[in-house]
Specification:
With 679 residues, this protein is an alpha/beta fold. The protein has five domains: 74 residues, no CATH class; 159 residues, von Willebrand factor, type A domain (Rossmann fold, 3-Layer(aba) Sandwich); 94 residues, Immunoglobulins (Immunoglobulin-like); 218 residues, Class I glutamine amidotransferase (GATase) domain (Rossmann fold), CATH 3.40.50; 75 residues, Sandwich (Immunoglobulin-like), CATH 2.60.40. An eight-stranded mixed beta sheet has the order 16-15-17-18-24-23-22-20, sandwiched between helices. Strands 4-3-5-6-33 form a five-stranded parallel beta sheet, with helices on both faces. Helix 1 runs antiparallel to helix 2, helix 2 packs antiparallel against helix 12 and helix 6 packs parallel to helix 7. The chain is elongated, with a radius of gyration of 45 Å.
Length: 679
């Protein structure tokens, strides 16, 4: 690049004065018609020109390429109809056309959008390492369902045209289910409220049928008005994660059925666990029970120890007794159902609880309550609870014998597989401390997890109606808390017993569960009896497949599904059915899958970009490189700025008035001027 510049040898103001004086002299000379004036004028101009020092500057320039960002949106909503193939072909065609343009740096990115289509944040990072005056623009191929479109345009760090290529059809119609609000947590025993709405502008009926499935067990259907927010209520019946699968029937026109359903996970927690502990008499195990139950801040413990039965006769004056009467009516009739767990610790029939109240306990358990009986020697005697109405729910019957000898509790085969006891030992052959006394009993029903000497049942669990019962046929569990060689997992054992009685899902003996970890579905099955039958998995595409689980011992079988497809997976084994959400099934990517330009219009208008709907490969717009000041709104072409930036590699300067030329020519002009004056 060549350019002419002046570098005067004297200050510019002085040069201007000199030019003014020279022009005056030349004007006077022509006015007086002085001979040789034309030569003098030429000489003066030559001298002034040499003082101005005209210089030819030659720059060796290197063009800096403009940068354009080309983004392809392949989020799940692009799988509808032919959007994906159309987007891919448009991407290839535009990329080919961009490669034909000289001095253009093309930056490419493909967004899979598994957690929603976020395009503008990656766009800003793609050109974040270059100055804004080198950005030519951006071309985004999408269906318009974008999560991160900038709301404050002035703060968005992209100042070049944003051109949107939209796949799909204008004014598409689709039925969709919208979860307006839902809780993340709930209290067991209370109802939760969920607000839902069905939108469908193409519906020819005013109502739509919605099916609600809780934990793949409880299902109900109801007809709700289309376009209105409807509140549904569901009870939380157990602690842990409760899954609600809500689905609306297909509409007249559908783009996808993915947004006709939604999965909500609610963590059900117990507000307060109310436990009643009734000790038949003071004993060494009381401290263990109190330490266990009082260590949990969510437990409200009501504890009574019977120190004096009503039929006891001694010489103690009544006025000196400070004992309170046992509130049997309040506990076992009026407020019995308020308790979540009843523990009888070495309790026996002492005239405290009439038969009528013990019948209430039986009904309480059958209707969903929980009972734990830690039996002492009295269980084998004439005042045993087995001689009360509780015999209908207790899992053992005493023989009348009491075993008094040192023994170590032995885990049965069921105990090795049951979650309550399976992991009590890291090594099944490791040593536990001994117990010294137990009641001999016969197992009537339930699962024996621990045995005493000669395979006598020691710990038995049973389900009765909707409730649960556990029984320990010994009063010696507390010895595991002593120092020395008598150590044992007493606290863990009792804690797990309580949690199993409270129906905690992770302690269910026959339970199917699944979770997602590092893009892999981990399937776990608990079972007391090894079941080699494969489980049935149903993918989000309703493709069923058998999965053979591997037995890893201790009642657990596991299986894996690598790189699962996003959506709701279902697994079933016998009567057990569970659901698992992979990815964000309720993301905005699926809330509305209709192609739209409403989201991108503000940013396109702000940057003087363009929006073009592409329905086929022949409908791809042309690419135009233009000056920034010539950008037009509502263009049908893809507009890119032609910045024409460069850097100078080197510069060469050449003076146009070399000294020898000025000297020779000045002498010639002086001679001609003198010669003309002499004539």
């Amino acid at each position: 690049m060549n350019s002419l510049n002046f570098y005067p040898f004297i200050p510019i103001n002085l040069l201007l004065i000199l030019i003014l004086l020279s022009l005056s002299v030349i004007f006077i000379g022509f006015k007086l018609k002085a001979p040789g004036n034309i030569f003098r004028a030429t000489l003066i101009c030559l001298i002034i020109l040499s003082i101005a020092n005209p210089t030819m500057v030659s720059e060796n320039r290197e063009n800096i390429p403009d940068t354009v960002a080309l983004i392809l949106d392949l989020s799940p909503s692009q799988n509808i109809n032919n959007r994906k193939s159309l987007a891919q072909s448009s991407y290839n065609s535009i990329k080919t056309e961009l490669e034909k343009i000289n001095n253009l740096d093309i930056r490419l990115k493909t967004i899979n959008g598994k957690k929603g289509s976020k395009l503008f944040e990656p766009l800003a990072s793609m050109v974040g390492d270059i100055s804004s005056d080198r950005v030519a623009g951006a071309i985004i191929i999408t269906d318009g369902q974008i999560e991160d479109a900038p709301s404050i345009l002035e703060n968005y760090n992209f100042k070049a045209p944003v051109n949107i290529i939209l796949t799909g059809e204008k004014e598409e119609k689709d039925r969709r289910l919208i979860i307006e609000s839902s809780p993340r947590f709930g209290i067991v025993g209370e109802e939760i409220k969920i607000d839902i709405k069905v939108e469908d502008i193409s519906a020819n009926t005013p109502n739509a049928l919605v099916t609600i499935n809780m934990n793949d067990e409880i299902e109900q259907s109801r007809s709700i008005p289309i376009g209105e927010v409807v509140t549904i209520t569901m009870p939380l019946e157990r602690a842990g994660i409760t899954s609600l699968n809500i689905e609306v029937e297909p509409g007249k026109e559908e783009l996808t059925l993915q947004n006709n359903k939604s999965v909500i996970e609610i963590n059900a927690i117990r507000e307060r666990l109310k436990v009643m502990l009734v000790s038949g008499e003071p004993n060494m195990g009381l401290r263990s029970w109190r330490n266990l139950l009082n260590s949990d801040p969510s437990v409200d413990l009501v504890h009574f120890t019977i120190l004096r039965p009503p039929n006891k006769q001694d010489l103690t004056p009544v006025g000196e007794l400070s004992l309170i009467p046992f509130p049997s009516r309040e506990l076992f009739q009026a407020n019995l159902n308020d308790f979540d767990l009843i523990i009888f610790d070495q309790y026996h029939l002492r005239g405290i609880l009439p038969q009528f109240y013990l019948k209430n306990v039986v009904e309480y358990v059958v209707n969903g309550g929980a009972l734990l009986d830690a039996s002492g020697p009295e269980y084998a005697g004439p005042y045993s609870l087995s001689l009360s109405p509780l015999q209908n729910i207790l899992p053992t019957e005493p023989t009348g014998d009491i075993i008094v000898q040192e023994f170590i509790p032995i885990m049965t085969k069921d105990g090795e597989r049951h979650p309550v006891t399976a992991n009590l030992k890291d090594d099944i052959n490791s040593n536990w401390g001994p117990w010294y006394r137990m009641v001999e009993g016969l197992t009537i029903a339930g699962d024996v997890l621990l045995e005493g000497p000669d395979a006598r049942p020691l710990l038995v669990l049973n389900r009765v109606g909707q409730g649960r019962v556990a029984q320990i046929l010994s009063d010696q569990s507390w010895v595991w808390t002593k120092s020395g060689v008598n150590k044992g997992p007493q606290a863990d054992l009792l804690r797990r017993l309580v949690h199993w009685l409270m129906k905690e899902p992770e302690l269910e003996e026959n339970e199917l569960s699944a979770k997602i970890d590092n893009d892999t579905i981990l399937i776990t099955k608990n079972s007391l009896n090894l079941d080699k039958k494969p489980i049935i998995s149903t993918s989000p595409d309703n493709i069923k497949e058998e999965i053979v689980l591997e037995d890893i011992g201790r009642g657990k079988q596991i299986g894996k599904i690598l790189s699962p497809k996003e959506g709701t997976w279902k697994f079933s084994s016998g009567n057990s059915q569970i659901s698992l959400i992979v990815g964000n099934s309720n993301s905005s990517e699926y809330l509305d899958v209709r192609a739209t330009d409403n989201i991108v219009k503000p940013i396109v208008s702000y940057t003087s970009g363009s929006i073009n709907w592409v329905n086929n490969e022949k409908n791809i717009p042309q690419i135009k490189q233009i000056q920034k000041n010539k950008l037009t709104d509502n263009s049908k072409n893809i507009q890119l700025i032609k910045n024409e930036k460069y850097y100078v590699k080197n510069i060469q300067q050449s003076s146009l008035t070399p000294w020898y030329f000025v000297l020779i020519f000045s002498l010639i002009l002086l001679f001609l001027s003198w010669y003309r004056e002499t004539k």
